[in-house]
Amino acid sequence: MKLNGNNLKIAIQKKGRLTEYALGLLRQSGLEFEIYGYRLFSNCQNFPLEILFLRDDDIPEYVQDGICDLGIVGRNVVQEKMAKVEEVQALGFGRCRLAIAVPRESDIDCLEGLEGKVIATSYPNVLKLFLLRNQISAEVVNVSGSVEITPSLNVSDAVCDLVSTGSTLRMNGLVELIMVLESEALLIANERSLKRGAKKLAFERLVMRLRSSLFARTRKYIMMNAPSVALPAIEAILPGLKSPTVVPLAEPGMIAIHSVVAEDTFWQDIERLKEAGATGILVTPIEKMIL
Ligand code: PRT
Ligand code: ZN
């Protein structure tokens, strides 16, 4: 296989937390490709796109330098690498936060308490900027792994590391003090290469497909029956996309209502719909939603 100069190139993590989600999103967006055991890149069969598999740390720079047009990588890595790239879309997976934590028995209990202390991190650039903005002067020690054990080795007074469930911090006797950055996977793009030229159209088509899949992931299609007098109350609960579809039923005074609801408020919406008179509520997933 050879890279084709006219195709779009997207970089994703070769092996790690973001890999399966990124591949899932590309597949759900209708892209067909095969992956072999030892992979460096893969050609899309039904779209002018090549997928490159890289270490996540290298992705921002590859995109910034135009070796790849697009990339999927955590906001934490983009900011740490200080890459000049365009953030096209937040993708809703790989969620975590970069946070400062201290040993449970530490007397540091607020941001100001870090003044003059030593903080170990793999994110020195993000941390230094955070401290500067908050006018705290502390010593930042750059460690590449196992940041959470540095306080017990007397290497640091505090750590600044990624947290998702918090169990790693707990296991190491650390408590979270303050959040530095909220992160999730981002679709990033090269600032220049997509603004003009033959790739622009393919880029726009790809982004539309990805956004349609993302939108569908967070929505459900909902159908229900209700007395027609209940329609105003039901419409108020379902902001929907535009107005809901309303169909009269054979039974006089009854209607069927179809709409789209957001996943995050789903159960509250269902309870309120039942209170408003909805019955026979049917909910189905949406595969894609073209906006
Ligand atoms: O080999 P490569 O360099 O590509 O991978 P990597 O080892 O650097 O990265 P990887 O696969 O671990 O993570 C990729 C991305 O996933 C990160 O850059 C984040 O954007 C995102 N992410 C989401 C996380 C976490 N959640 C996470 N919990 N990355 C790391 N962690 C680690 C964290 O460093 C800590 O050690 O998990 C531990 C904390 O987890 P909890 O659940 O115990 O709080
Ligand atoms: Zn990495």
Report on the structure:
This protein has 3 domains: 8-93 and 185-216, Periplasmic binding protein-like II (D-Maltodextrin-Binding Protein, domain 2), CATH 3.40.190; 96-183, 3-Layer(aba) Sandwich (D-Maltodextrin-Binding Protein, domain 2), CATH 3.40.190; 218-285, Alpha-Beta Plaits (2-Layer Sandwich), CATH 3.30.70. 25% of the residues lie in helices and 31% in strands. It has helices at 19-28, 59-64, 75-80, 124-133, 167-171, 199-217, 231-237, 266-275, and strands spanning 8-13, 41-43, 49-54, 70-74, 86-90, 96-103, 118-121, 139-142, 158-163, 174-183, 185-189, 219-227, 245-248, 254-262, 279-285. Strand 13 and strand 14 (254-262) form a beta hairpin. The radius of gyration is 24 Å and the shape is flat. The two termini are 35 Å apart.
Could you tell me the CATH topology label of the largest domain.
Answer: D-Maltodextrin-Binding Protein, domain 2
Structural class: alpha/beta
Q: Proportion of β residues? A: 25-35%
Strand order of the largest sheet: 2-3-1-4-11-5
The proportion of residues forming helix, as a percent range, comes to 25-40%
Report the sheet with the most strands, covering strand number, pairing sense and barrel closure.
Answer: 6 strands, mixed
Number of domains: 3
Q: What small molecules are bound in this structure?
A: phosphoribosyl ATP, zinc ion
Shape: flat
Mean pLDDT across all amino acids: 93
Low-confidence stretches: none
Using only CA atoms, what is the Rg? 24 Å
Order of helices and strands: EHEEHEHEEEHEEHEEHEHEEHE
